[in-house]
Model the fold of this input.
Amino acid sequence: MRKQQLYLLCFFAAFLSFQSCQDYDDKLPEPTDLDVQKFIWGGLNELYLWQADVPNLADNKFNNDLEYYNFLEQYTPEDLFQSLLYRPPGSDDAAQYGAVDRDSWIVSDYLTLEQQLDGTSKNNGVKFGFSLVTSNSDQIIAYVKYIVPNSDASTKDIQRGEIVYAVNGITLNLDNYVNLFFSSNENYTLNFADLTYDSNNNPVITPNGKSLDLTKTTLAENPILIKKVITNGAHKIGYLMYNGFYSSYESELNDVFGYFKSEGVTDLVLDLRYNGGGLVPTAARLASMITGQFTGEIFNELAYNSKKSFLNRKYTFVSTLNGNSLNSLNLSKVYVLTTKNSASASELIINGLDPYINVVQIGDYTYGKNVASVTLYDSPTFTKTNVNPSHRYAMQLIVAKSVNALGFGDYSYTGLKPDYQLTERIKTLGVLGDPSEPLLSTAIGKITGTSKLIVPEKATTDFIYLNDSKTLRRQNMMYFSTEIQ
Done:
């Protein structure tokens, strides 16, 4: 069996190419005739989760090499890749998204992809949300969700909830906002505005004259943004805002739970509202830190297509990390805060724990990613070993479906439904980690039994949410190591 590192991810379908965190002096090599197309078709035919459902990927599609080459010659690499994605006729998903598979994608330079998978990129440290101002306008606003510590933005006068209406003096709209925020330019100027509401409760954006220069630097984000213990009556509530499942921070994560244990926490609020995913083993370890009483039991299973079913893998609850004991809380209930940005491994935590303990989900529906993808290179084994030197194309390909110990994983697109639905709104964002912040306050109230019954939110005019900066940087992922033969 040939071993390879396969980075598997779940992520948003996005329309932004990766931004490198370092510069390369060498130019991209020129591929030889049909090399890239042959790589694309071969990779999808071998590992694609829906290979059996795409007629043009059938093993007996071509009678001879001439038919095969004539087929490939019709397409550019990008067009061929898109043409081979799973699109069932008449499907609601196909009508809405163009394909059931919204999460597979292709890049022309795997060097920048590798940097992104390592969790490092060039950015200024501001995590934005993007929304349409009104349904009958293409005007966009960006609003600050949080600031990454030790970034350029962390040294500047910028706060959560502030509104940006323009970049470099150019008003944001549907056509330009991606390029303005995520171009290769290392410097830009943000132009701010105030948010008010008219007599009909419609949002009004008014430039306030504030501007701020920011610089992108090479930055690795520590996913442990906030950890604290909140005492409320007889309850000692551990609060953890966790923004990514990264292996390099597992020891720090274990230390956080050691801190919670030393403080005698009785309850836990896990804030995953901006967590787009990460390592499956890290998710299994976090679940084990929350619990501790289910070592060896199945946490999650990934199932491949019928050609690769031997790769199906089960992840279990564990009791150690790097040979040392995990700090586990042995809880039978956990409160999880979510938004539409909670995806992949964040959903895995909720779905994987659900058969074992009471998971109380507060916030919004999650994004809905129950599939995993793998990085494929153009080589005989689809690894980087003996990679074709004539080009640097790579594919991030959906190869497996995720289910919990009960076999449940049917939340694609719909997301996981919250027990108590509460949508984050710009005008009431609050301070992260403050007991009065709406989502955390609701969780505290449910823990202590002091909260009022949450009723459906009144219909009010609000911004139309589009996506966020993590989405556009493709930082919504789930990956792990495996073997392929």
User: Anything to note?
Assistant: Residues 46 and 278 are 25 Å apart (CA to CA).
